[in-house]
Write the structure tokens for this entry.
Amino acid sequence: MVERPLIGNVAIVTGGSSGIGAACVRALVTAGMKVVVGARGQDHLAILEEEWGEQVAIAVRTDVRSPSDLDRLVSKATTTFGRLDALVASAGVGAYGDVLDYADDTIATMLDTNVGGTVWAVRAAVPALLASGRGGDIIIVVSTAGINGGRHEAVYAATQSAQLGLARALSQELAPMGIRVTALCSSGGRAVPDTDASGRARMPLSTTTSEADDVASAVLTVLRQPRRIRTELWTMWSMSETG
């Protein structure tokens, strides 16, 4: 397979100030792409922008729960760089706890960020991807909890299953328009608090999760595929995970 060059292509990365999102930003820039980063962490965004310079990467404070914020993010990409070729929807939050442990606002935040935030990002990006006339890519970063949810993560797993279902359906909907949609399922990388919803220490993740740079490498592989090929589902598991 001959890899498709990415130099000069334009991508948006949501949740791009830390974790998997930040790793994706660095990988895309290194591959020659221009990247517009959306996230709520203004300090981290400023560091990314300073690291790469505004000719390569632009940081925009974005709350993915806000459709208007995402419209503004897409507009920034198209007005600055003239096009949009890819969306990497990486923003997400998680919390561990039994289903009765969660506070109502914790559940609402997970639903609004993980599910709503992905839907709003896609809706904002699709018109710009179509306008390019070149086709495009939407990569939705999903936790493998959406495939095989475990104890103490039922609500979080539900949001990941929703993202997976969204990606699979969008793939069928948008492929005829030249837009490829990939659910990239990894076993780690979400922003999980140090304690679960009931105040217990969270489960250790350091030896059982995919590395952020590995996920970013997979994103590049998906984007570099010839336009005749699409990858609908990619799952990544740590070798230490057996259950």
